[in-house]
Write a structure and sequence with these properties.
70% helix; two-stranded antiparallel sheet; 20 helices; globular; 472 residues; single chain
Length: 472
């Protein structure tokens, strides 16, 4: 690699053709590593409390379900110390990291306070008892609201300091690892893992090869492919960092993922009902074909609720839809985040590394520099919870570990994802996205089509016996 002369501030993006120094790689020198340390700190504290017979629930607060605005208001007022403590904890953790990275806390803290309050209001909307009926999940509301605000109003420059999109999503991915013990792979069984592998590979290569055929940059095509093959936003950002894609390319991939995730919330339950699928088979198909965890859970839950109210017209236990979705999506597809990040970091370095039209010699240091470090946090978090889960059966894990250890971490993860989605919306200009044209949409849609068809065949025909075994 050639010697370079200029370093960009943390979080800044180089202009096309700008010469910049490779990112700092010390363990406290970038947001990647800080997301690992913060995430692991949260998990260790949660584990220590759990081991002592307590829980992180008090701090990991989220609005309770409500029916009337009066109920929502009373719930907020009754838990204001919890929310104040949660804001202080997030501000301390993020603020410490950004201060070490040389960022201005005088600009970050006021901006983050506004982001936190907006996220709290969004959380309250998603806690409405009818929210699932209208698919009002907190991250999706955050994205739509952010897009509306950013494309109608001009936000002040200082407010951008709190919109740390990648920092929030990286922390969310580390916390996601705590909800994915490796033993879940064994509980899911070879069917879920095998089905996830087939779909992940087929979807990625369909999008990637279609994108290249349409003339898209291979890095852009790779980010689109991983976004469709795994779990959307998290995977797209991980892939973007691995291949050094441009920011607008990652933003376009995120937008397409979210758009199709919203579409599938409505399409998959309706199609499952029309095709007469059992709850477990429908949950597996949704887990194979959805593009975001929040959207997929909403779709699976909707089908389970439909079965509960259908008077036996839909086969299978209502809870089997969410169970099959979790095994398929969370236990199977989400694990591929780390696999794709490492693979693309290696491919981009050894096959796509050009300087002046000549392929440059790659070395292990460059692969390591490209590899998203927060994926290490994801794996470590998963390993820790795997060790904890190894002392429990699947039934006891769900009964004991999930409510007191995993659920509070999941709540904090949802907060981080909400911060991320709101920040994505607030920093995205739809006009700039339209400049990429129709080719990314066509490439991604080709992957969607393959994803749905293969997912249907595997769930409904090839592995139907296995999934129906979950349906009771």
């Amino acid at each position: 690699m050639s010697e370079v002369t200029r370093v960009l501030p943390v979080g800044a993006r180089p202009a096309d053709g700008a010469e910049v120094r490779a990112p700092r790689t010390g363990i406290f020198s970038n947001e990647d590593w800080w997301s690992v340390w913060i995430g692991l700190l949260v998990i260790v504290v949660a584990w220590a409390l759990f081991a002592s017979g307590s829980s992180l629930k008090w701090l990991a607060v989220a609005p309770a379900k409500w029916t009337t605005l009066a109920e929502a208001g009373l719930a907020l007022a009754g838990h204001w110390p919890n929310y104040l403590a949660l804001f202080a904890a997030f501000a301390l953790l993020f603020g410490t990291a950004l201060a070490v990275l040389g960022q201005s806390l005088a600009r970050f803290l006021p901006s983050f306070l506004i982001l936190f309050v907006a996220s709290l209001l969004i959380f309250n909307v998603s806690a409405w008892t009818q929210a699932s009926r209208y698919n009002l999940e907190a991250p999706l509301i955050a994205l739509v609201l952010g897009l509306l605000v950013s494309n109608v109003f001009t936000l002040p420059e200082w407010f951008q300091s709190g919109l740390r999109v990648e920092f929030y999503i990286k922390l969310g991915i580390v916390l996601l690892g705590a909800t994915l013990p490796l033993t879940l792979l064994f509980w899911a069984g070879p069917v879920a893992v095998g089905q996830a592998t087939i779909v992940s590979l087929a979807t990625f290569f369909t999008i990637f090869l279609t994108g290249k055929a349409l003339g898209l940059d291979k890095r852009f095509a790779a980010v689109l492919g991983v976004g469709g093959a795994v779990c959307g936003v998290s995977a797209a950002i991980a892939a973007g960092g691995a291949v050094r894609a441009r920011r607008e390319q990652t933003s376009m991939a995120i937008t397409l993922v979210v758009v199709w995730a919203i579409v599938m919330i409505f399409v998959l339950p309706l199609a499952s009902r029309a095709l007469g699928l059992s709850t477990a088979v429908a949950g597996a198909w949704i887990g194979t074909s959805e593009f975001a965890d929040a959207a997929g859970i909403a779709a699976a839950q909707a089908y389970g609720d439909a079965a509960r109210n259908a008077g036996g017209a839909i086969a299978g236990a209502p809870d089997a839809a969410v169970q099959a979705f979790t095994l398929m999506k969370v236990g199977g597809r989400d694990i591929w985040i780390g696999i794709w990040a490492f693979t693309l970091a290696w491919v981009a370095t050894t096959r796509w590394n050009y300087e002046g039209g000549v392929e440059a010699k790659a070395d292990a240091r460059e692969i390591w520099a490209r590899f998203p470090k927060f994926v290490i946090g994801f794996v470590l978090a998963s390993a820790l919870v795997t060790w904890i889960a190894s002392h429990y059966s699947l039934a006891d894990y769900r009964k004991i570990v999930t409510p007191d250890l995993v659920a509070p971490i999941s709540t904090l993860r949802t907060w981080a994802f909400t911060f991320c989605f709101l920040s994505i919306g607030l920093t995205t200009r739809l006009r700039s996205l339209t400049a990429t044209g129709w080719k990314p949409l066509l490439a991604f849609t080709a992957g969607v089509a393959v994803n749905i068809v293969i997912g249907y065949v595997l769930s409904v025909h090839v592995f139907a016996h296995y999934w129906n075994g979950l349906g009771g």
